[in-house]
Amino acid sequence: MSKKKTDREKLTRREEEIMQIIWRLGKAFPKEIMEFLREPLPPYNTVLSMIRKLEGNGWIGFTKFGKSHQYFPLVEKKDYSKGLFTKLYKDYLGGSKELLLSYFMKEEDVDIKELEELVKELKKNKNK
Question: Which range of residues forms the domain containing residue 62?
């Protein structure tokens, strides 16, 4: 049985940064990706290695233009985000809805009224 792309090994901080850039741009050449990377910038060849690893692991594809490659995402950002959230929810919160809500109420300063509005909105959308 093959793994879903979002179940693959966790991306490194820099690989995730590259994916964020590609998701934002839709498609990009390595030099364009380099323009958006945060300091300290890794060497160009290091970035190419990371891009090739992402491509080899099925995260991105490419279109060849002569000697250049323009990369595009094969995994949608929402799917990756969902996988990250699911892992966080299960591994760190034990799948506890109480801990999840408690976190948002305490750490993100969500009050009861906001929560009630959210529940109303969710119920409304569920009935559509």
Answer: 9-73
